[in-house]
Amino acid sequence: MTKTTLTTRIRTLTRLTVTNRVSAVYLALVGGAMAVAAAGPLFTTGPDASLIWVWPALFTFPAFGFVAWLGEAGWGGEAPVWFLVGGIVLSALVQSLALGTVWHTLRGRRAHRTRLTTAN
């Protein structure tokens, strides 16, 4: 694999994962939920304060389901915070890539149909 090919593949992955509208909105939603969850302990001191982390995890399902399963298998329900937060971030990126790929595919089909319609 040449350097140019590798650079092209990295750019394509980045474009599909981060720089399209659908992925950007999704990542902003997950990032906002994580920011609110991280700031939660500053404003809430109740015993249920950590439940705010359910929202970022829910926004990243079904990919986070695999991370939760790994945490349960590896640590028996006591997975470290770094593992769960890293799992949320990784799950969000994987799902953002999937959303970007679907968006790109649908836009390509629409553009192809539009070209066929205008050509006739």
Structural description of this entry:
The protein is an all-alpha fold and 120 residues long. The chain has one domain (22-119). Helix content is 80%, strand content 0%. It has helices at 3-17, 21-43, 54-59, 63-75, 81-119. The longest helix has 39 residues, at 81-119. It is elongated. The mean pLDDT is 87. Keywords: Membrane, Transmembrane, Transmembrane helix. InterPro entries: DUF7942. This is Integral membrane protein. The chain crosses the membrane at residues 24-44, 51-70, 82-106.
Distance between the termini: 41 Å
Tell me the count of domains. 1
Fraction of residues in helix: over 70%
What amount of the residues lies in strands?
under 5%
**Apparent shape:** elongated
- Secondary structure class reads mainly alpha
Rounded Rg? 19 Å
Order of helices and strands: HHHHH
- Our count of helices gives 5
- Taking pLDDT < 50 over at least 5 consecutive residues as the criterion, the unreliable ranges are none
Instruction: Report the strand count.
Output: 0
Arithmetic mean of pLDDT: 87
Largest sheet: none
Organism: Streptomyces hyderabadensis
Keywords: Membrane, Transmembrane, Transmembrane helix
InterPro entries: DUF7942 (IPR057702)
Protein name: Integral membrane protein
